Amino acid sequence: MRSVRIVSSDAGVETRAGTIFTGTIWGEVLLPPADGATLNRITFAPGARTFWHRHEGGQMLIGHAGRGLVVTRSGAITPIAAGVVVHACPDEEHWHGALPDAFLTHLACQLGGRTVWLEEVSEHDYLRAVEQALTLEETYAA
């Protein structure tokens, strides 16, 4: 019989920026790496985003508040907001972050393996993806 483990993080909320994020984000570890999975709550300031990256085991992003987008290397763009769940397949290169005029908070569940960080998302590529995401939102609203 498998036991249930209660996990709490004493690390609190950390401000992160620099080598894997553009802009400012706040991260909180909810489930430290255990049995191949981790869970973090991440809040992105307006315009903040991750660098390109991939997860060996994949990743689930669960929108909690605000508005943002998830973009894959193939060019697929998915708007993310409260209640939206986005799955990045194992080793799928992607980035995610807030729109320029909104904060974004999501839960990020890494489904095993390590994260491989790649290059920064250029401002040009970010703004192009934002424009396309806003067009998608208008289409869904119509």
Summarize the structure.
With 142 residues, the chain is mainly beta. The chain has one helix at 123-141; strands at 13-16, 21-22, 25-34, 37-44, 49-50, 53-55, 59-72, 77-81, 85-88, 94-98, 104-110, 115-117.
Order of helices and strands: EEEEEEEEEEEEH
User: Averaging pLDDT over every residue, what do you get?
Assistant: 87
List low-confidence stretches: 1-8
Helix run count: 1
Structural class: mainly beta
* Beta-strand fraction estimate: over 45%
Q: Main β-sheet, in a few words?
A: 8 strands, antiparallel
As an assembly, this protein is single chain
Shape estimate: globular
Give the radius of gyration: 15 Å
Query: Distance N terminus to C terminus?
Result: 51 Å
Total strands: the figure is 12
| Percent of residues in helices | 10-25%
Q: Could you give the topology of this structure?
A:
Elements: E1 13-16, E2 21-22, E3 25-34, E4 37-44, E5 49-50, E6 53-55, E7 59-72, E8 77-81, E9 85-88, E10 94-98, E11 104-110, E12 115-117, H1 123-141
Antiparallel strand pairs: 1-3, 2-5, 3-4, 4-11, 6-12, 7-8, 7-9, 7-10, 7-11
Description:
The protein has 142 residues and is mostly beta strands. Helix content is 13%, strand content 47%. A hairpin with a 2-residue loop joins strand 3 and strand 4. The longest helix is centred in the last third of the chain and has 19 residues. The protein is globular and about 40 Å long.
